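Structure, all two chains, one model.
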Amino acid sequence: MRTVSARSRLSSWLTRTPRARLALLLSAPLLWLGLAYIGALAALLITALWSTNAFTGQIERVWTLDNIRIVLTDPVYRAVTFRTIGVAVLVTLIDAALALPVAFFMAKVASPRWRPLLVAAILLPLWASYLVKAYAWRSMFGGGGLIDWLGAPFGITSPGYGLTATVCTLAYLWFPYMVLPIFAGLDRLPGSLLEAAGDLGARPGRILRTVVLPMVFPAVVAGSIFTFSLTLGDYVAVEIVGGTKQFLGNLVYDNIGAASNQPLAAAVGLVPVVVMIVYLSLSRRAGALEHL
Amino acid sequence: MRKILAIAVVAMLTACGTTSESPTENSQGFTAPKLPMHDKLGPGEGAVSILAWPGYAEDGSNDPKTDWVTPFEKQTGCQATIKTFGTSDEAVTLMKTGDYDVISASGDASLRLIAAGDVAPVNTGLVPNYGDVTAFLKDRPWNSVGGQMYGVPHGWGANLLMYRTDVVKPAPTSWAAVFTDAGKYQGKVTAYDSPIYIADAALFLMKTKPDLGIKNPYALDEKQLGAAVDLLKTQKPNVSEYWSDYLKEVQSFKSGNSVIGTTWQVIVNTAKAEKAPVEAILPEEGATGWSDTWMVAAKGKHPNCAYQWLNWIVSPQANAQVAEYFGEAPANQKACALTADKSFCETYHAGDASYAEKIWYWSTPVPQCLDGRTDVRCTDYAAWTRAWTEIKG
């Protein structure tokens, strides 16, 4: 009896105070966001300011800016940063160039009956494991692989593992993430606008340039946030098809897993964070965040 | 991420101070924390967690015929969980988690583990089979501190040069094939992905460029390290990929993406078993190599099972099996009588102290030059790690 009355008292108190209700509802997800997300970022920053004992690999909690200085001034880290950003940009451009016609076909040309099937077809590769797809590209680029076999009649041989293989693999892996936002953007574009432009005498090229592209641009930027950030943080595909090339992710992985230098790894890990902050603020200006 | 967070929390609790235990000074350039030694063998805990080089703790999952873990479990009642690692650096990092009871450590990991307080001194009196271990493996600088053993010697061998017999003709005789002549197999050379590989370049320079004055590939001053780094940078354009996962190297040689490069005997055996046309040689310059030691974790949860594993793995029967499977000289002299190939120990020079002296065992580079020079400071492992990042670019 007493527990029931306590429960009913609590429930009536909650009914009377909507603020307490809201606080209780939100505290769990907010705590999660604060601890696991912001807290992790803060820990990353703090760790970057420590150093390790080179011999034992133990972390020495003495404040130092050495790791940040190494990452900013050492030519190796600069080269790897520019290589990673360059590949991220290239992957994004390739995906955008491939995704635009595909998404246009899906949204404006294909009959409504086919549309869900096409969306499913684009999503289908996401069901397969990332590793399986990366290893598939490894065997395609390998000696005697598909590319060697296809190119043989034309005297073309596979470029082997390296940047080319990495760009191809990553562009393939992130392709669905580019198609879907553009498809959604084009879907919202009224067909009447295209017809009106045509009625006024614009040729298809001009319609694309002056009507479709400006309206779909925020969606492209939204898709590029995925392709760009996913490439920026990737290291597994690089490990599998990248040959001797290193990305920022590999430097983080090697510093934690191999060199047991977590502070330096944390300092390297801050680079993509900074790059993404810049990228996101630029995207926001382009109005892309409403299209995510 | 959780680990970094945990570190941050610990840091806040300890108010950003460094901890130190009362240290023992020694001449090896580091101080070993004083840790208690296991003094009496109690009943087994029913489980043991093993951190090992691939091929050192086989439970039949790779090859049903290769299994010396299951008999151990049957005899001692200690259920073994096995984790393998690809480089000594990875081993040192994994050992810090405190999840493992025993580790097979090479010379470039052992002293770091001792200095970090991750492994405890070993009471060899609790390991009956220790008595049969070859004398020249005991009380060495990589497995003991001040006369106190920190583990049980397991076996030793050399890093070899492997090549595809159908592509690499004539057969190589020198490490020059992967350094100065690497251009012949452009994009098909492979190398070990660890800073310790710099020693392979230093060894080659030691034999081919005497004016650099390298006496020990693990004792390099700034100029000598620079020469080794330059050599590795000229090698890099010819490298298809660096390996640290031994199965990746097997696959790479099988498909022909790599045709020549440094290897271990176990990789040669695995590749041959998969019908890859490969051979391996010990080049004329000699080689870097390993002399491994089973060590016991300082804070392991199963110390009694750990000691039972130590005794088991250097027992004549198990030691013979490991040595033959991995392709190394066994530490236990009695193992030689039990190998399937009766000339095995002769092939691997198991009891041959003078041959063993010719291999440059992996050691951790420290500022105090390992070759005895006192007029310069040598480059330490941190410098090697930075150099390796720079070489890979």
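The radius of gyration of chain B is 21 Å.
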